[in-house]
Every structure is written in structure tokens, then in C-alpha cells.
Design brief:
about 450 residues, single chain, binds iron/sulfur cluster, 17 strands, 6-stranded mixed β-sheet, Rossmann fold
Length: about 450
């Protein structure tokens, strides 16, 4: 069976500048500002008051629902303020907690203790994952315990660990796989126990042979675990495409990986799951890549949540005069920061600093079909971009046409935009149309609830 998926592209990977650099551990700074919105779903609710002393790993934010994540103090210190900060992904204001570290970096008594987690029942494992505030560290930030709880009636037989790191320029997962293959495989075991899946697969792209070898050697005695090297193709790490490449199964349109009997987790999330279960360490730190032609000291950095982005960029040697744009994540799926005046969050996997503000020139569609060949979701991206333009020009029925054209199946991978010789801003239009669709649904819900209220009067 060919271990691949339809479509996809081969952008220059830009990884050479940091692939050989082990992460530098950055000590907590004089002030940490910790966003309460660090996962998909609802923001966390603050659990601390101004002046309160906290220890590392102590809960400071509680989930506001099932699809939400707990938040923990990244170091010991005193809560200085309940404040707001710029969200590094959306640029909008979000609530945050400002913490003044005491320099002692002491763990809370309930943390950093070994635990015999293999004696725990699957439900207790899922609860421990939720209590540790784990979210998808590949950038999606979906709460991990939710993904480990498939809908009733679906049975998961395979957990895939995503070590593809197909996004150009990013190398933090590569370095983690090299440094901690055994811990990542323990995390895979946590996920297999939580879901009851009998089979585990770690999927690495074959441009990281050293990471593949490290994992394969660490898994030599594990009967139910396979370590695969997949051919390089973007977006190999997208969930549906990875499932297709590894198992040959298709996730149905609008469906979940669990509908194909699979749960996919990132390798960094697996490492965090090992820390959470084996050592009772909640998620308080992550590794990210800082790179691009506008920094002179690119590298991988392990930082506490709430670390100042300007200070990190300075550490990486940002040329403030030359930089045209800083992207949160990589060039394909990342979003340009509206401002660098922000702080690290669980989902921030990279900061790509580029001199040129635009990666592509924009022009009209020349109907070459390249985007159709590149689209791994089987869509007609040129049509979606034209419908986006039409909707912007107030042709309101364009949104219905976009829905019929599979708008919600787009995974926003950017392969189409990369392949487009006219530089069409296809992903921009897809995101715009999806946002408009969400607004449309909210209006419909509001209208229905008003109608129900009127009837029950
Ligand atoms: S239309 Fe969506 S899924 Fe298809 S290539 Fe473009 S961004 Fe990727
Ligand atoms: S690749 Fe660009 S120019 Fe070619 S059909 Fe698609 S949108 Fe049009």
C-alpha cells in the first residue's frame, strides 16, 4: 500500500537553520503574562486573586466547559494583576494573569512526584490528562482529553503519533523526538490506555532519519507499536491526510478521526502526557522554533507559558529594522502577528521572522488548475477564492455556493496558495468565508431562540 494521500505540495522546508540545534532552556523572566485562552473552545476561568502566592504547577485557571483546558502556574511567584494581553494568534485582546516570579521556581507539593499510572483505569487516565491542562501542541490546541473521549458508538483501534512536522521552518518536534524518544513512546502508551486502542503508530517524515531511528530503537521491544517513515509531502501532518497515509482509511466529510477508528496526537503532546501521568507535572512549558531571514540567532527554545515574545525575538537576534512580518507557526498554516507585543501560549510552535512582508504576489486566477491538483481535500480552491471575492462584493448567495463546494472540508493547509502561480489569497478567502458562516449560524440560533421565547410567552 502506498503510504501517501492525494494532492499536496513540496515547498522548500527552510529547516536547516535550526534542525541541528538542541533547545535552549529559558529561565522564567521578571514577569510572565499567562493568557486564559490557550485552547480551542472556551477560555479558562481565573482561580487566583491579586496578591496570591502560587507554586509551579498550581492551578490558576479552570476549564469553563468540557471543551476547555485547565491552566497552571508556570513558576512560583505572586499574582500581580488580572489583566489583558494581545492574543498571539488572533491579535484580539484576551484575559490574562500577570505573575511575578520569586526566582525559586518551586513546584507545588502535588506535582513533580512519580506515579504508577499503569495501574489507573482509562477514565482516570483521561481525567489526569484533563487535570494537567493538555492541548494539542502541534498548534491546533484542541483539549487532549476531548480527543481521547471518542463519541459513543465509535471504537478506536489505532493511535497515531504525528511526528511529521511537515510545516516548513519548524524543527521543535524534530529535536524533541531526538532527545526524548522513550518518553514520547510512554506518552503513546498513555493515549492507547486512555482510548483502549491496541495499536500505536509513530509517523515521521523521511527527511528526519535520525529521529525515525531514535524512535525505532526505543520501540524495538514494543510489540504493538510501529514507527513509520513517510515520504515528505505537505501537508503530511494534517489529521485526515496522516490517517489516509498510515491506515489507508478515509475520514468522512464532516467526520472525526474516531469515525475511522483513529485518534491522532502530536509527539510533543505525547511527551507532555508522559510528564503529566508519570510525574504529575502539568503543562507549564513548551518548546518553539524561532527562525527566518530576519533573525541572526535562530534556534529552538524551551520557554515557560507567558514568556514575552519581544524578549525571545531579541534573544534570537531579530533585526527590528529589516523585519517585514512575524508569523505565529510556519509559513503554510501560520498567521501573521498583528503585533509582537504578546506572550507565549501552549499553541505557539514557532515564530517565523521574515524580511519580506508578502510571500506571494496577488493576481487574478488564470484557471491553470494547479490548486486543484495540490488540494489534499479534493476541493476546487480556485472556486472557493472566487466565491470569497464575490461574497466580499456583497453577493450573499456566494456563501451558500461555497458551502456546497465543500468549504468546511478545507483544512486551511495552504497547498493551493503555494501552488498558485497567480498568488491567489485562497486561504484568506476560505478563512473569511468560514468566519461568515459561523456568524450566519449564530444569527440563525439567535433568531430561533427569540422565536421560542415568543411562543412560550
Ligand atoms: S482548499 Fe483548503 S484544503 Fe485545499 S489546498 Fe487549499 S487550503 Fe488546503
Ligand atoms: S492555481 Fe491559482 S491561478 Fe491556477 S486555477 Fe488555482 S487559483 Fe487559479
Amino acid at each position: 500500500m502506498a503510504r501517501t494521500f492525494r494532492g499536496g505540495v513540496h515547498p522548500p522546508d527552510g529547516k536547516a537553520a535550526t534542525a541541528g540545534l538542541a533547545p535552549q532552556r529559558i529561565a522564567p523572566e521578571a514577569a510572565l503574562v499567562i493568557s486564559l485562552r490557550q485552547s480551542m473552545g472556551a477560555a479558562s476561568a481565573p482561580l487566583v486573586a491579586v496578591g496570591q502566592k502560587v507554586l509551579r504547577g498550581e492551578p490558576i485557571g479552570k476549564p469553563s466547559g468540557f471543551v476547555s483546558a485547565a491552566l497552571h502556574a508556570p513558576t512560583s511567584g505572586t499574582v500581580k494583576k488580572l489583566t489583558t494581553m494581545n492574543d498571539p494568534v488572533t491579535g484580539g485582546k484576551v484575559q490574562a494573569i500577570e505573575l511575578e516570579p520569586d526566582g525559586e521556581d518551586r513546584w507545588h507539593d502535588a506535582c513533580n512526584q512519580p506515579r504508577a499510572w499503569r495501574d489507573m483505569a482509562p477514565e482516570a487516565v483521561r481525567q489526569a490528562v484533563a487535570d494537567a491542562g493538555l492541548v494539542g501542541l502541534g498548534g491546533a490546541t484542541f483539549p487532549t482529553h476531548v480527543k481521547l473521549t471518542p463519541p459513543k458508538g465509535t471504537a478506536v483501534d489505532t493511535v497515531i503519533l504525528n511526528g511529521a512536522e511537515c510545516e516548513p521552518y519548524l524543527t521543535c518536534d524534530h529535536r524533541l523526538m531526538l532527545a526524548s524518544p522513550g518518553e514520547i513512546l510512554e506518552g503513546l502508551d498513555v493515549f492507547m490506555r486512555a482510548t483502549g486502542a491496541p495499536r500505536g503508530v509513530v509517523a515521521v517524515e523521511d527527511n528526519k532519519p535520525d529521529a525515525w531511528r531514535a524512535l525505532r530503537d526505543a520501540a524495538a521491544d514494543l510489540k504493538h507499536v510501529e514507527v513509520l517513515a513517510l515520504p515528505v509531502k505537505y501537508p503530511q501532518g494534517a489529521e485526515k491526510q496522516l490517517i489516509k497515509a498510515v491506515t489507508g482509511r478515509e475520514v468522512p466529510s464532516g467526520g472525526l478521526p474516531a469515525d475511522a477508528g483513529v485518534v491522532v496526537q502530536n509527539v510533543a503532546t505525547a511527551y507532555a502526557a508522559w510528564e503529566a501521568l508519570a510525574w504529575q507535572r502539568p503543562l507549564t512549558e513548551r518548546t518553539l522554533t524561532i527562525t527566518g531571514d530576519a533573525v541572526s540567532r535562530p534556534g529552538n527554545f524551551s520557554v515557560r507559558l507567558g514568556t514575552s515574545v519581544p524578549s525571545l525575538l531579541e534573544r534570537a537576534g531579530l533585526d527590528a529594522e529589516a523585519v517585514g512580518k512575524v508569523i505565529a507557526g510556519g509559513p503554510m498554516m501560520g498567521l501573521a502577528l498583528a503585533t509582537i507585543d504578546t506572550y507565549t501560549i501552549k499553541g505557539l510552535s514557532g515564530l517565523l521572522c521574515l524580511k519580506s512582508p508578502e510571500m506571494f504576489a496577488h493576481g487574478p486566477c488564470i484557471r491553470c488548475g494547479n490548486c486543484v491538483d495540490a488540494c489534499p481535500a479534493g476541493l476546487v480552491p480556485s472556486t472557493l477564492s472566487l466565491l470569497g471575492e464575490a461574497y466580499e462584493d456583497t453577493q450573499l448567495d456566494a456563501l451558500d455556493a461555497a458551502m456546497e463546494s465543500g468549504l468546511m472540508d478545507c483544512i486551511e493547509c495552504g497547498s493551493c496558495a503555494y501552488a498558485c502561480p497567480a498568488g491567489r489569497r485562497i486561504v484568506h478567502y476560505v478563512r473569511f468565508l468560514k468566519a461568515e458562516r459561523r456568524k450566519q449560524l449564530a444569527r440563525e440560533r439567535e433568531r430561533k431562540s427569540q422565536q421560542q421565547a415568543a411562543v412560550s410567552k
